[in-house]
């Protein structure tokens, strides 16, 4: 692993300012850490503090990140607080009913101007010194303003706004890069796979039951990569849960356990896997009975109903994941190289009767809630990987991502390149894109280097 400095220390002397943090940062060359063609990954990418800080600069500061769902905002002043990487963010509806996002940090001394998780307000007021900002981010009130110099202008000290906010079928994403490619272009063929969850109902989707949050000891990439690529673990890691859910108590039949399926591999790092067995649907019976599958086939197409709409898994790079039949959508918020905070919502179709929505909610909680029978298995695996990855010898042994090498192809049925269901193809794609971004200067870096 080699290092490069992002700019000369003397570059700022002429303009009379201190170097910015990103200009002083040492950027690590990750070329030797990810061999996506050979299917080998250096496990230091989960533990190295320098790499983690570089991720904040080059992954999370330049990627489209999930913020919230549009159903969380009904009227001007509704807000929700979240994170983009480790940056605190306010998402709110302004007076014109547009969704906007701001850095949740007062321009005076840096305290959060909104400490509530969600709610409604007319102003965001810092509890430290009382600076107040309106829904458009403008600074409106400064106690003892007359003590400031004559050239102090409130117009210069509004909240820092995230320059790009975009919505895809109810999902709100944001990007700090002023010249970021449009969200739909960044999603590419992944939109087809997302639509199998987001576009079943002409009325759209909504989230119910609030936001569930829990902390896991593990690097955020372990979770994001698994949801992109890993059906392989299901029959082993979730064996006891599958037994509980099966009608016989013995687990799924052999043909279901060894289900055929496909895995989508995106050049943008996204991934989705899905069985194509007609009985590969683990959600609540009430939800099945609600759906008119003939109408769904007419709306989405046979291939989508038989594939991405089944009990699959998916990740939108870098940190948004979902489970299409369970209606679980979640973000893996990074909290250091060894820790992540999981935020999860329950997504339902708007036109579902209340009793069907409730059945989906309860099923989701039993399976992929904070103490769900599947969720607990996953968290244990990620924590186990992380717990031993700091060992000297352990950290020098590469990890194998070779399953399905060479199987990626355009299959003529599903958009983009796909592999077999049991494959590491989307995982290799995830880390290939990760490495590309990690080695390229981002929008905020000195472009002359």
Please write out the topology:
Elements lengths: L2 E3 L15 H4 L1 E3 L5 E2 L4 E2 L7 H10 L6 E5 L8 E7 L2 E7 L5 E5 L14 E3 L3 E2 L6 E2 L5 E3 L22 E5 L2 E5 L7 H5 L2 H9 L6 E12 L3 H10 L4 H4 L1 H7 L8 H4 L3 E5 L5 E5 L9 H6 L2 H8 L1 H5 L6 E4 L3 E4 L4 E7 L5 E10 L4 H15 L6 H14 L10 E2 L16 E4 L4 H14 L11
Antiparallel strand pairs: 1-2, 3-4, 4-22, 5-14, 6-7, 6-9, 7-8, 10-11, 11-12, 13-14, 15-21, 16-17, 16-23, 17-18, 18-19, 19-20, 20-21
Organism: Arthrobacter ginkgonis
Pfam family, one: Rieske
Keywords: 2Fe-2S, Aromatic hydrocarbons catabolism, Dioxygenase, Iron, Iron-sulfur, Metal-binding, NAD, Oxidoreductase
Summarize the structure.
GO terms for molecular function: dioxygenase activity. The protein has 449 residues and is an alpha+beta fold.
Give structural notes.
The chain is α+β, with helices and mostly antiparallel strands. It has 2 domains: about 65-165, 3-layer Sandwich (Rieske Iron-sulfur Protein), CATH 2.102.10.10; about 190-440, Naphthalene 1,2-dioxygenase Alpha Subunit, Chain A, domain 1. Helices cover about 25% and strands about 25% of the residues. The chain contains 14 helices and 23 strands. The protein has an 8-stranded antiparallel beta sheet, with helices on both faces. α5 (about 220-230) crosses α14 (about 425-440). The chain is globular and about 75 Å long. Mean pLDDT is about 90; it is low at about 5-15.
């Amino acid at each position: 692993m080699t290092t490069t400095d992002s700019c000369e220390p003397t570059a700022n002397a002429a303009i009379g300012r201190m170097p910015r943090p990103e200009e002083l940062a040492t950027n690590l060359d990750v070329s030797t850490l990810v061999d996506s063609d050979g299917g080998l990954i250096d496990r230091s990418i989960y533990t190295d503090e320098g790499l983690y800080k570089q991720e904040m600069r080059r992954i999370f500061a330049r990627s489209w990140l999930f913020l919230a769902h549009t159903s969380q905002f009904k009227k001007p002043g509704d807000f929700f607080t979240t994170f983009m990487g480790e940056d605190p963010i306010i998402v709110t509806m302004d007076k014109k009913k547009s969704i906007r996002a701001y850095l949740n940090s007062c321009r005076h001394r840096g305290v959060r101007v909104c400490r509530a998780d969600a709610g409604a307000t007319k102003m965001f007021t810092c509890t430290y010194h009382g600076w107040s900002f309106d829904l458009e981010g403008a600074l409106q009130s400064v106690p003892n303003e007359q003590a400031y110099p004559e050239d102090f202008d409130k117009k210069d000290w509004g909240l820092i706004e995230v320059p790009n906010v975009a919505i895809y079928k109810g999902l709100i994403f944001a990007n700090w890069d002023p010249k970021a490619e449009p969200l739909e272009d960044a999603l590419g063929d992944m939109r087809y796979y997302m639509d199998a969850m987001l576009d079943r109902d002409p009325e759209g989707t909504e989230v119910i039951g609030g936001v569930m949050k829990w902390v896991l000891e593990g690097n955020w990439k372990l979770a994001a990569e698994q949801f992109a690529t890993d059906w392989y673990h299901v029959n082993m890691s979730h064996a006891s849960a599958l037994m509980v859910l099966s009608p016989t108590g013995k687990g799924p039949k052999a043909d279901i356990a060894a289900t055929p399926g496909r895995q989508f591999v995106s050049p943008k790092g996204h991934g989705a896997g899905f069985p194509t067995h007609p009985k590969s649907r683990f959600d609540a019976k009430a939800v099945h009975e609600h759906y008119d599958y003939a109408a769904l086939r007419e709306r989405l197409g046979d291939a989508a109903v038989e594939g991405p709409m089944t009990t699959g898994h998916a990740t939108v790079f870098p940190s948004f994941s979902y489970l299409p039949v369970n209606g679980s959508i979640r973000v893996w918020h990074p909290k250091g190289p060894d820790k992540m905070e999981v935020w999860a919502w329950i997504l339902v179709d708007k036109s579902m009767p209340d009793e069907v929505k409730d059945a989906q909610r309860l099923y989701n909680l039993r399976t992929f809630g904070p103490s769900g029978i599947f969720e607990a298995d996953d968290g244990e695996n990620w924590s186990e990987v992380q717990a031993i990855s700091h060992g000297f010898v352990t950290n020098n042994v590469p990890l194998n991502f070779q399953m399905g090498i060479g199987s990626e192809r355009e299959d003529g049925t599903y958009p983009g390149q796909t592999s077999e269901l049991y494959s590491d193809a989307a995982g290799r794609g995830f880390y290939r894109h990760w490495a590309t971004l990690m080695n390229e200067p981002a929008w905020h870096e000195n472009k002359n280097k």
